[in-house]
Amino acid sequence: MSDRTACYRLYWTDRTAALLPQYVLEEAGIAHEIVPVDLTAGEQRSDAFLARNPAGKVPALELPEGGFVNETAAICQFLIERHGLDELAPPPGDPYRGAFLQWLSYLSNSVQPSYKLFYYPHRYAPAPGLEDEMRAKALELIRDAWRPVERHLAANGPCHLGGRFSLLEAYLAMLVMWFPEPAALLAESPAVRVCFAKAAERPAAMRCLGLPPGLAGGSS
Predict the structure, then answer these.
(1) 59, 21 contact by CB (below 8 A)
(2) pLDDT tens digit string along 14-28?
């Protein structure tokens, strides 16, 4: 896509939350270009990148007309509303709109951040040498964050909005894949497993989120 003004540019790193807006773009067939950002090399701290996202994080979405939208949930909701992707989120006035926003916020603000302590224990350990203890505690917190999701899906599933697929299923699938042993999480959370299988039915989700075939055990 040589004409960069005609499409979105998604500043992206694999195995990060940037996979979710990539999924939205590909699911909807929206013209875009993926721009890899090397976090290991510290590219996100460069002046050039900070001009795109002052927080120094991926994803960052450059708009065709200029300007940027940052933060995973905000980017996804922006794209969904701008392009009328009602199949991925209930529009304003829809009876499911409130539930969608509630669970989008929960996944973004409660489940997703719980992984930071596990993968970056050196940032949060109170003293050097306590990283293993911090990681063990973090795993408990991650499981705690998943329990309300499991309870909700068990009572109201198979999807977050009952039988209606939305962005939430793809978000859930991405976060499941961040778990140290995704198969273990799915085994102990049967309703989450069924919801995960719904996301795995989508070719764009399989491709963008790296969902292994058969991980959900065919429970759809």
Answers:
(1) yes
(2) 999 999 999 999 999
Q: DSSP string spanning 180-207?
A: SSHHHHHHH-HHHHHHHHHHHTSHHHHH
Query: Under 8 Å CB-to-CB from 50, ≥6 apart: which residues?
Result: 56
Of 82, 83, 108, 84, whose CA–CA distance to 94 is shortest? 84
Please answer whether residues 118 and 180 qualify as being in contact, where contact means their C-beta atoms are separated by less than 8 angstroms: yes
> Could you read off the pLDDT of 126-141 as tens digits, one per residue?
888 899 999 999 999 9
Q: Distance of CA 149 to CAs 13, 35, 119, 158, 191, Å?
A: 27, 33, 22, 11, 9
- Residue for token digits 């875009």? 32
- Partners of 61 in beta bridges: 10, 69
- Give backbone dihedrals phi and psi of 62, rounded to 5 degrees, phi first: -90, 130
Can you tell me the distance from the alpha carbon of 53 to that of 72, in angstroms, rounded to the nearest whole number? 12
**Phi-psi category of 162—alpha, beta or left, where left has phi over 0 and alpha has psi -120 to 50?**
left
Spatial distance between the Cα atoms of 217 and 163, rounded to a whole number of angstroms: 19
Contact (Cβ atoms closer than 8 angstroms) between residue 172 and residue 195: yes
